[in-house]
UniProtKB/TrEMBL annotation:
Protein's recorded name: MarR family transcriptional regulator
SUPFAM superfamilies recorded: Acyl-CoA N-acyltransferases (Nat), Winged helix' DNA-binding domain
One Pfam match: MarR_2
SMART domains assigned to the protein according to its UniProt record, in alphabetical order: HTH_MARR
Record domain HTH marR-type: where: 1-140
Keywords: Transferase
Domain of life: Bacteria
Domain N-acetyltransferase: from-to ranges: 149-306
Length: 306
């Protein structure tokens, strides 16, 4: 295990401690009701599912079937649950709430809504917005499908995000200074001012609803020559094929627009990008030592005959 992994584990555990404490999940009863947290969750499943079985509830809540069975027995003894035969499977009865059970659930639901509402309303608006965004992200991570990479065109705000994310990424990974951010800002500003859809294009890669990469196709300085610019992939999205999809889209568009050659500039330390270019058929045509972004680097120009 790495130090970064240990820190990730500590971060999630710290969240769990704060979350369970602030919502009172460790109390003997949940939201002042006569139910424990697990009992409240089983009651919720009974109220919101149509003819559930004990086995279905146990699977949905990832609880021990024996624990669910004991809870349902207590509910039955208190007159909260009714059961009827399931013609398709005699051992698994269909479950439902009695009138008393529905009343108990309604009281629990009202208390929970009031409790959570009070917690949210007590937060500063900025904290509340961050909390709700984080809660939505957590739901998506645990309940959503695996992230799918989608390429799309530019939307308002993308140019600023591309500039910011690339500046932060290369500062964090390579220690590049603000000169790189200024360079990217100039490139995207020129693209916006001079874009010609018959000669230029750009793509944003999204996964899980967030930007995870970009690439730009711009006309070059000589007839028939285009430039591939501003390829980047977020660190956590590497391994999903984002860079390959972006490079392939750029090459295909350059061919479709009738360009004869596609050039790009990079530096030798960006080894992952260089491997992408090599696999796509680019050939290194020039190397030049340079001093930029606060470091001694080696500029490289790569070209692909189309």
């Amino acid at each position: 295990m790495t130090a970064a992994h240990d820190q990730d584990v500590a971060t999630l555990r710290a969240f769990n401690r704060v979350y369970t404490s602030r919502l009172g999940l460790l109390d003997a009863s949940y939201d002042g009701s006569p139910f424990t947290l697990s009992e409240a969750r089983i009651l919720y499943e009974l109220a919101t599912r149509t003819d559930p079985t004990a086995a279905e509830i146990a699977r949905a809540l990832r609880l021990d079937p024996a624990q669910v069975s004991r809870t349902l027995k207590r509910f039955s003894e208190r007159g909260l649950v009714t059961a009827r035969e399931n013609p398709a499977h005699g051992r698994h009865q269909w479950l439902g709430l009695t009138d008393d059970g529905r009343a108990a659930f309604a009281a629990l639901e009202a208390n929970t809504r009031a409790s959570v509402g009070s917690l949210i309303e007590g937060l500063h608006p900025l904290h509340r917005a961050r909390l709700l965004d984080a809660a939505a992200a957590i739901n998506e991570v645990f309940e959503g499908d695996a992230p799918e990479v989608v390429l799309r065109g530019l939307q308002p705000g993308d140019l600023g995000l591309v500039t910011a994310r690339q500046a932060m990424l290369y500062a964090g990974e390579y220690g590049w200074n603000g000169d790189y951010e200024a360079l990217v800002a100039g490139i995207v500003a020129d693209f916006h001012r001079n874009v010609d859809p018959s000669q230029d294009d750009a793509w944003i890669a999204e996964a899980g609803g967030r930007m995870v990469g970009s690439i730009f196709l711009v006309r070059g300085d000589a007839p028939g020559v285009a430039k591939l610019r501003l390829l980047y992939v977020e660190a956590e999205a590497r391994g999903l094929g984002v860079g390959r999809q972006l490079v392939e889209a750029c090459i295909a568009r350059a061919r479709a627009l009738g360009y004869q050659r596609l050039d790009l500039w990079t530096v030798s330390v960006l080894t992952a990008a260089r491997r992408l270019y090599e696999r796509a058929g680019f050939v290194l045509t020039r190397e030049t030592p340079s001093r930029q972004f606060g470091h001694d680097l080696v500029d490289q120009v790569w070209s692909l005959d189309l």
